[in-house]
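Summarise this fold before class:
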Amino acid sequence: MTELRMLPRAVDGSGYRLGAPQRAGALTMVPVFGPAYPGIVPPRHGLKLGRVVTYGQVELTNPAGSGVAIVPLHVGYIQDAAQNHALCRSAFIAAGQTLRFDDACCVQESQGGYLAGREDQWFFVLPVELRAAALRLRATANYSKLWGDIAAFNRRYGLPARGHLEQVLTRQRAGLTQYRSRLERLEGQLGALFFVGDSLAGVEIAPDPEYFADVWAALACFAYGPAAWFSAEPAGDDTPLAGDSVDGLRAALAARRGARADEVRGWLAAAPWVPGELVEEERYLDLRLSTVDGGAVAGQVVTDGSRLVYASLFAAAG
């Protein structure tokens, strides 16, 4: 597990390295370490939900005194007694500025009420099964545009076929949030590869470790957690280690970790992971926000020249 090689050709992934894989049931996380990019405000400090103007129109604000906010791709917000919303794209928001997203989507079909700015905001990232559809629908102003895909997502997991994402995100929240603790976010980690079973499901890279810490739970628990939670894939080798001494247990643990790393290395080699070309969407000073849609892999990437700043790429088949 060494270099990061799952990026579009125009993006320089040098300087990044992969750590030892961790597994929790059907979900495997491979930590990513690399160079931090300065000047990006982490989401919990640099991104606040202001209000929902009307269904499908969401305002976000960067309240920081300096630094640009990169809106996490497919971020969503949930509040009681309000129509929950998610965004279909990323964006830049300068310090002290507010940006209105007219192409947001409602993710709770028959719930009325508007989201409002609060101190107790918590955000999620859309489950990977919905992300390709959401990305295709960016720039489409229709608040109900994802309801059919959410209904199919629910039907897939034996839930009522309605456009209500909270059937998974809130009703299964206790189970899904276990991934946050069972998979350990490491010191200096600024990204991760996520596998569901033996399939590479996502590549998530943040500008720095603080930004990644802010999005960690949203990614592990809600973007990739549902697919693993409901997966029929085998959970891997969780049998107790065998050894008649401390040294014996250490050797058994090292052997298991080595075997797991070899297994994941094989998954990476076999993954049909070929991101397409970058299509520029937006600029902020030297930063470029681009969309990737190459069939099997989709998502968005922020670069400074060829240098990677942020990436959220996922298996488009979900």
